[in-house]
Amino acid sequence: MSDPLMDFDEAVRRYDPVLGLEVHVELGTETKMFDAAPNVFGAQPNTMVTPTSVGLPGALPQVNARGVEYAIRIGLALGCQIARSSRFARKNYFYPDLSKNFQTSQSDEPIAYDGAVEVELPDGTLFTVPVERAHMEEDAGKSTHVGGADGRIEGARYSLVDYNRAGVPLVEIVTRPIEGAGERAPEVAAAYVRTLRDVFRALGVSEARMELGNVRADVNVSLRESPDAPLGVRTETKNVNTFRGIEQCVRYEIRRQAAVLAAGGNVVQETRHGQADGTTRAGRVKSDADDYRYFPEPDLVPVVPSREWVEEIRASLPEMPALRRRRLRQEWALSDTEMRDVVNAGAVDLIEATVHSGTSGQAARKWWMGELSRVAKETDTSLEELPVTPGQVAQLQKLVDSGRLTDKLARQVLEGVLAGEGDPETVATARGLEVVSDDSALLEAVNAALEAHPDVVEKIRGGKVQAAGAIVGAVMKATRGQADAKRVRELVMERAQG
C-alpha cells in the first residue's frame, strides 16, 4: 500500500523542513581499524579476517595510527576542532554481521567537533551546513539474504555473513540540525554529501566510490509548522548511497510527513529504507531512548594527538575542492554557468589535465563539454571512460592552433582517436585530413570552381564581393573541407578580379 503524499510545493509552503545527515566514509587504509587484517574490497568472503576482526575471545584490538591521521585530516578539512583527547567506546547491540555483539565507536568523546561545510547548489547558491562531530568507528560485516526479493531478509530461505568488511575503519560525520533550506532541502542534502565526497577524494583518505558503499548517508527529515516552532519528529532513512537517492529520499519524506500531519496524524520516529523508485518504506520504530549501553572500551587507551602532529597534518592539507574550482574558473576564464556545467559533468580533472598538457582552459572545455560529452551521452558512458586522454585532446587542439586542422577536420580526427586508430597526429596523417595550404593545389580547385560558376565571377567583378562565398564553398566541398578557407577566399578574389 502506497503512502498518502502531499504536493511538494504545498508541503514546503505549509511546513518548514529540517534535515540531519550522518555520512559514513570508509577509509582507504592498508589494514583495518583495530587489527592487521588487510582492508581489501572484493576478496573472497571471510578471507580478510583475523581473530580480532570477528571478536574471538582473547583477541585484543590495536588502533590504526593511519586511521587516526585520516580522521584528523577530515576533521580539519571540515573546519572542526580536534580534541586534545578522545576515546573509543563499546556500542552494544546484536546483529549477525557484528559477531562480537558490540561496535567499537566513539560516543561522547569524538576526535573532531564543531565544524561547518559550505556547499554550492547547482545554480551557484552557497549554503552552510553545521557539523556537530566527526568520530572514528569500525564497519560491520555484510549479510546476504538468499531467496528473498531483491536480496531482502523478508522471505529469505537463509542468510550468509561475510566478515571481510568487519573492522574496516570508518569516520562518521554528523551534522547539527540543518535549518532554513526550505524548498531547496533536497538539493542541499545531495550537495552536502557531494561536497564531502569531493573532500574525501581531495584528502586522499578514501576512494569515496558511492557505488561500492565507500560513502553512504543516513538521512534524517522532520517537519515543523514554522521556523520558530520546536523541531518535529524525525525519520531516518538508512544507508543511501547515491546523490539522486538522497535528493529523492528528502523530497519523498517531506511529502509523506506533510500528508500525515495535514490529516491530523503523528509522524512515527523510525528508521526507513530507500527504494529504487525514490520512495521510502518503514523499518523499525526508533526512539531517542535506545540504550546501546555505551561504556569506554577497556582494551584501548585514549587517543591524544599532539598539537605539533595536528598542525603538521593541517599544513599538509591540499587545496579544498571548492577553492580549487574557483581558482580554475578564473584561470580558465569561464563564466559561473560554464564552470557549474563543467563540475556537474565531472570534467574538472580532465580539463585541468588537458590544460597541463599544453592548451587553454577554453579550448579544453570546448572539447570535453562539446564533442566528447556528446559521444559519452550517445554511448551511455562517463567522460573518464572514453578512450581518449587529456594529452591527446591537447594534441588535437595544437593541430587546430597551428592551422593544420580546422575544427571540422579535428572532429573527424577525434572520431578516429576514439575508434582506436592512434593519436591525433597519426589519425590526421593516415586519413589524409590535414588542411591543404599549398597554393598550387588550391589554385587548381579555385580555377575549376570559377570556370563552373561564370555568373558568380561576373557578380564579384561587379562589386558583389559577398558572392565569393559560393566559390569558396565549392572549393571547400571539392577539397573535402581540407582547404584553408581564408586562403581560398584570397585566391578567389585575386583570380576573379584579375
UniProtKB/TrEMBL annotation:
Q: Pfam families, per this entry?
A: GatB_N, GatB_Yqey
Question: What residue stretches are annotated with the Asn/Gln amidotransferase domain?
Answer: 349-496
Keywords, A to Z? ATP-binding, Ligase, Nucleotide-binding, Protein biosynthesis
InterPro entries (UniProt xref)? Asn/Gln-tRNA_amidoTrfase_suB/E (IPR017959), Asn/Gln-tRNA_Trfase_suB/E_cat (IPR006075), Asn/Gln_amidotransferase (IPR018027), Asn/Gln_tRNA_amidoTrase-B-like (IPR003789), GatB (IPR004413), GatB_Yqey_C_2 (IPR023168), Gln-tRNA_amidoTrfase_suB_CS (IPR017958), Gln_synth/guanido_kin_cat_dom (IPR014746)
Q: Does the keyword Hydrolase apply?
A: no
Give the enzyme class.
ligase
Per its record, the protein catalyses: L-aspartyl-tRNA(Asn) + L-glutamine + ATP + H2O = L-asparaginyl-tRNA(Asn) + L-glutamate + ADP + phosphate + 2 H(+); L-glutamyl-tRNA(Gln) + L-glutamine + ATP + H2O = L-glutaminyl-tRNA(Gln) + L-glutamate + ADP + phosphate + H(+)
EC numbers: 6.3.5.-
UniProt superkingdom: Bacteria
Instruction: Please give the family membership noted in the entry.
Output: Belongs to the GatB/GatE family. GatB subfamily.
Q: What is its quaternary makeup?
A: Heterotrimer of A, B and C subunits.
What does the UniProt function comment say about this protein? Allows the formation of correctly charged Asn-tRNA(Asn) or Gln-tRNA(Gln) through the transamidation of misacylated Asp-tRNA(Asn) or Glu-tRNA(Gln) in organisms which lack either or both of asparaginyl-tRNA or glutaminyl-tRNA synthetases. The reaction takes place in the presence of glutamine and ATP through an activated phospho-Asp-tRNA(Asn) or phospho-Glu-tRNA(Gln).
Q: What is this protein called?
A: Aspartyl/glutamyl-tRNA(Asn/Gln) amidotransferase subunit B
The organism is Actinomyces lilanjuaniae
Q: What is the lineage of its organism?
A: Bacteria, Bacillati, Actinomycetota, Actinomycetes, Actinomycetales
